[in-house]
Amino acid sequence: HGLRKDNYILAVGHAAGGNRSKAKRCVLVAFFSGSSNSEKAKSYLHGCLVRRALTSLLADCKEGHTSSEMETVQKAEETAESEIVQLWPIFEKIVTDAGWTLDKTECSTEGYEMHFE
Fold it and tell me: Do the beta carbons of residue 58 and residue 66 sit within 8 Å?
């Protein structure tokens, strides 16, 4: 399943190739044709929040807290959804106050792979 909101779909998947159980997890984002640059920036932040939540939950699993993979991913997506609702308006205000125009934003991957389709 994926989170569909704001002209994008976000979901956790596995990198292509090899054994799925050993494949690295990745956050996948698909944009609708009408997605604005502001929505793309929001999806990037949303993806970072999912990654952070997933990393934290996986660390808990290594410490003995057990959950299925599906439960872990679902909890990470739910946590990030809650955080994006709270953080996005704050982020928008801060960048607007700083003189940025989110509609002119382009995402930088900083070492992460991004695919836009």
Answer: no
CA torsion sign for 24, 87, 6, 68 is positive
Q: 14 forms bridges with which residues in the sheet?
A: 25
What per-residue confidence (pLDDT) applies to 117?
Answer: 35
CA dist 12 and 25 (Å) reads 7
Question: pLDDT tens digits, the chain, 117 residues: what are they?
Answer: 455 667 888 888 876 665 555 567 788 888 887 888 888 889 889 999 999 999 888 887 666 666 788 888 899 999 999 999 999 999 999 999 999 888 887 765 555 555 443
CA 6/CA 86 separation, integer angstroms: 15
Largest CA distance in the chain: 47
Amino acid code (one letter) for 104: K
Phi-psi region of 110 (alpha: psi -120 to 50; beta: other; left: phi over 0): left
Buried/exposed 99-112: b ≥16 CB within 10 Å, e otherwise: eeebeebebeeeee
